[in-house]
Specification:
The structure is a single chain. By secondary structure, the protein is α+β, with helices and mostly antiparallel strands. It contains six helices and ten strands, in the order ααββββαβααββββαβ. It has a seven-stranded mixed β-sheet with strand order 4-5-9-8-7-6-10. β1 and β2 form a beta hairpin. The longest helix has 23 residues, at about 5-30. It is globular, with a radius of gyration of 17 Å. The chain starts with 6 loop residues before the first helix and ends with a strand. Mean pLDDT is about 75; it is low at about 55-90.
C-alpha cells in the first residue's frame, strides 16, 4: 500500500516543483534563444523563487537544513567532498561544496555574507536530469572549479549571479552560482544553481557579453 503523503510534505513538494519550473524558465532566458522580451520574465522568476524560499516553514535557521515536514532525520553539514552523494526524497541535503576567494566578487557586488558555497541535493538532481552527460565532471571537478577557477564572470542578466569557469584540455566547465550579500537574509548562503560544459566559442560569447571579475594568470 502506498504511503499517504502528509499535508506539509505535499506543500513542500509543490513548492519545489514550482521552483524547478521557474529555474527552467531562467535557463531558457539565458540560452541562445535569448530575446530582450525575456528580461521582465527573468526578474519575475527570481522574485517568485525568492518568495517560495523565504516562506519555506520547513527551513531550520539554526542548522541550515530543509525537511519535508514530517521527517525527523537530519543531515551532517560537515561533509565536504568532491564526490556528491544524493540523499533521500524526504530530506533536502545541504552540502558544503567548498570555500572561495570573495575579493574579486566583493569589488563588484559589495561584502558577501560568507565565503562558503553550498549545493543542495535538489540542485544535484537538476544537474543529473538536465545535464546528465556532465554530472561525472561535476562530481570530479566541482571543488576545483570553486577553489581554482580560470574565470569568474558576472551574469549581467540575473541579479547577484556569477559563472565560475574552469578550463580543461578539451572543454570548459561552467558552475553557475547565486551569491549572497551581507545585506541579504541571514540564513542564506552562496549556492550552486547549475553546472554544465561550455564550448570555447560559447565561453568567448559569455566573456564578450558580460563583465569578467577574475581571470587566472
Amino acid at each position: 500500500m502506498t504511503r499517504q503523503e502528509t499535508a506539509p510534505k505535499i506543500i513542500y513538494r509543490q513548492k519545489m516543483e514550482l521552483i524547478l519550473r521557474y529555474i527552467e524558465l531562467l535557463e531558457l532566458c539565458r540560452s541562445e534563444f535569448y530575446d530582450p522580451f525575456f528580461t521582465d520574465m527573468e526578474l519575475r522568476c527570481l522574485e517568485e523563487i525568492g518568495e517560495l524560499l523565504r516562506y519555506n516553514h520547513n527551513h531550520d535557521p539554526h542548522t541550515g537544513r530543509f525537511t519535508s515536514g514530517d521527517s525527523v532525520n537530519t543531515v551532517d553539514k560537515s561533509v565536504k567532498s568532491d564526490i556528491i552523494k544524493t540523499g533521500s526524497d524526504d530530506v533536502a541535503e545541504i552540502i558544503e561544496l567548498g570555500k572561495f576567494d570573495t575579493q574579486p566578487l566583493e569589488i563588484e557586488f559589495g561584502k558577501l555574507k560568507t565565503d562558503e558555497l553550498i549545493v543542495t541535493n535538489e540542485r544535484i538532481e537538476h544537474i543529473k536530469s538536465r545535464h546528465p552527460e556532465d554530472f561525472n565532471l561535476f562530481e570530479k571537478y566541482s571543488l576545483s572549479v570553486v577553489v581554482e577557477p580560470d574565470f569568474i564572470i558576472k551574469d549581467e542578466k540575473n541579479i547577484n549571479t556569477v559563472f565560475m569557469v574552469k578550463k580543461l584540455e578539451n572543454t570548459n566547465l561552467n558552475l553557475v552560482v547565486k551569491i549572497i550579500l551581507e545585506t541579504d537574509e541571514k540564513d542564506l548562503k552562496n549556492s550552486v544553481m547549475t553546472f554544465y560544459r561550455i564550448r570555447e566559442r560559447n565561453l568567448k560569447k559569455l566573456v564578450d557579453r558580460n563583465k569578467t571579475l577574475y581571470k587566472s594568470e
